[in-house]
Amino acid sequence: MNLLIKIQDSIAKHQLRRIKSEYERTRSLLRLNEAKKILIVYAWKDNSAYEQVQASIRIMQAESPKAHIEQLCYYRFRDKKLPEALIQKNLILLNRHRLNLFGLPKKALLTILLEKNYDLLADFTFNDYKPLLFTISVIRAKLKTGPDLPGRKEYYDLMIGLREGDKLKDFTQNLIHYLNIFKSN
Length: 185
Known about the structure:
By secondary structure, the protein is α/β, with parallel strands linked by helices. It has helices at 2-22, 47-63, 107-115, 130-138, 168-181, and strands spanning 37-43, 68-74, 91-94, 118-123, 141-147, 158-160.
């Protein structure tokens, strides 16, 4: 089993290099109120965690009322029925049906995501999920933000430090704070 995981990781890294070389992105610092298209990335855990994510999204929407916010949710459970909350507009669902044999997003989903040029990508996940990290790395967003966790430096332009016991609300408030103090180009 360990060998299979190593093979999957090797193939994932190869695919990532190939895709990143095909699709370059323009990095740019921007204030939150300048963002017109925002992608929020998170993983489904349970209803309580989902409500925390939605509360953080509402806070970001209040800070940037003109922005169009989309959500990319990773639902990793195989045996559970899809929760009712995940059946909504502006939600891109990444589940086992949208992953290939190697546990990476299928080309059709990547094509959809690559066509959208987001101003801001905000990763709300505090755990490492290979399909999500792969997707984050190939999305063309002017600014990619996420938590400062080991092994994630290559995915983000701006990393927000977490103290022990910090919750998503703390992370969101810090993210908004830093995005609001950036100077415009």
